[in-house]
Design brief:
The structure is a single chain. The chain has one domain: N-terminal domain of TfIIb, CATH 2.20.25.10. The chain has one helix and four strands; from the N terminus they run αββββ. The protein has one helix spanning 4-9; strands spanning 19-21, 27-30, 36-40, 43-44. It has a four-stranded antiparallel beta sheet, with no helix packed on it.
Length: 67
């Protein structure tokens, strides 16, 4: 879970607008451009190249960790 104080200071690195927690709690969604930044091990990954749009979640390799 993301700390509320941290959430208040985070912003989308692309358009600099606020982000909010997604309904499933697995990402932070920009209120303007709708990019979703994943949260991994409680850490938001605020990199443009890691962001995805709704419906593109399958592109993330996080769920498929097979060694």
């Amino acid at each position: 879970m993301i700390d509320k104080e941290l959430l208040e200071v985070l912003a989308c690195p692309v358009c600099k607008e606020p982000v909010e927690l997604t309904a499933d709690g697995k990402g932070l969604k920009c209120v303007k451009c709708d990019r979703i930044y994943p949260i991994r091990d409680g850490i938001p990954i605020m990199l443009e190249e890691e962001a995805y749009f709704e419906g593109e979640e399958g592109s993330s390799s996080e769920a498929e960790e097979t060694g």
